[in-house]
Write a structure and sequence with these properties.
mainly alpha
């Protein structure tokens, strides 16, 4: 049993997989954080843009 645990500890075959999985998790969390934190400002820009029509759209009617 001790040899088996030592073998698992020294074996690095899954190291790349774990590294890439952690990298993907980190990038996903950062993207979610940026998306959630920027959501309010994007909503304000969208609302402001729709509440003030451009002069060209007013002259077309």
């Amino acid at each position: 049993m001790r040899k088996r645990l030592a073998g698992i500890w020294k074996d690095d075959r899954g190291q790349d997989f774990i590294d890439y999985a952690l990298l993907i998790v980190f990038v996903t969390l950062m993207a979610a954080f940026l998306f959630l934190s920027a959501g309010g400002s994007v909503k304000n820009i969208w609302t402001t843009g729709h509440s003030h029509p451009s002069p060209s759209s007013m002259s077309a009617t």
